[in-house]
């Protein structure tokens, strides 16, 4: 008499020897049939929009979790805290990237700000020199207008 699904799951969870045998059997099956399996998956992705959407969502969740240790809900909460705005330029953007230093997530940034940080290699000295350069090279009339606006 075949085992029920619940009994199989219970045995897999409780019996380490059984679990190892199942994992070895699954790995062996994968090695023998991976070309066929991948071909079938590629075909299904091409022809089935629902499956394609499901795979994209799964890949997105995995990428967030593996790269940054975030769940989609964590990212939504960050976006809500930042009011959908970039942490640097404060512009409201539809797409915000996760800004991170290693596994430490610092916030959500728009593409231009994220690329800018990358080009400056996250080095505050480089950024301060760039600020000084931009201030020194901007026309005097423009600098005065900005100062006048701030005083209001």
Q: Could you please describe the fold and organization of this structure?
A:
This protein has a two-stranded antiparallel sheet. The protein has helices at residues 5-14, 16-47, 49-68, 72-81, 111-119, 124-137, 140-151; strands at 97-101, 104-109. The relative contact order is 0.05. Helix content is 70%, strand content 7%. α1 crosses α2 (16-47) and α2 (16-47) crosses α3 (49-68). The longest helix has 32 residues, at 16-47. The protein is mostly helical. Among the domains are: 5-47, no CATH class; 120-152, no CATH class. The model has no long low-confidence stretch (mean pLDDT 91).
Write the layout of secondary structure elements.
Blueprint: H1 5-14, H2 16-47, H3 49-68, H4 72-81, E1 97-101, E2 104-109, H5 111-119, H6 124-137, H7 140-151
Antiparallel strand pairs: 1-2
Helix pairs in contact: 1-2, 2-3
Largest sheet: 2 strands, antiparallel
Order of helices and strands: HHHHEEHHH
Beta-strand residue percentage: 5-15%
Report the average pLDDT across residues: 91
Backbone shape: elongated
Count every beta strand, where a strand is a DSSP E run of 2 or more residues: 2
List keywords for this structure.
single chain, two-stranded antiparallel sheet, 152 residues, mainly alpha
């Amino acid at each position: 008499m075949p085992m029920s699904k619940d009994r199989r799951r219970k045995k897999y969870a409780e019996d380490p020897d059984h679990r190892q045998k199942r994992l070895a059997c699954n790995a062996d099956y994968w090695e023998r049939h991976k070309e066929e399996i991948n071909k079938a998956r590629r075909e299904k992705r091409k022809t089935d929009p629902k499956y394609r959407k499901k795979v994209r969502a799964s890949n997105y969740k995995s990428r967030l979790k593996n790269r940054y240790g975030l769940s989609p809900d964590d990212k939504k909460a960050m976006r809500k805290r930042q009011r959908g705005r970039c942490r640097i330029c404060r512009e409201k953007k539809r797409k915000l990237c996760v800004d991170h230093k290693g596994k430490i997530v610092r916030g959500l940034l728009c593409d231009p700000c994220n690329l800018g940080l990358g080009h400056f290699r996250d080095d505050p000295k480089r950024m301060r020199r760039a600020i000084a350069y931009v201030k020194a090279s901007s026309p005097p009339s423009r600098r005065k207008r900005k100062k006048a606006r701030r005083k209001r």
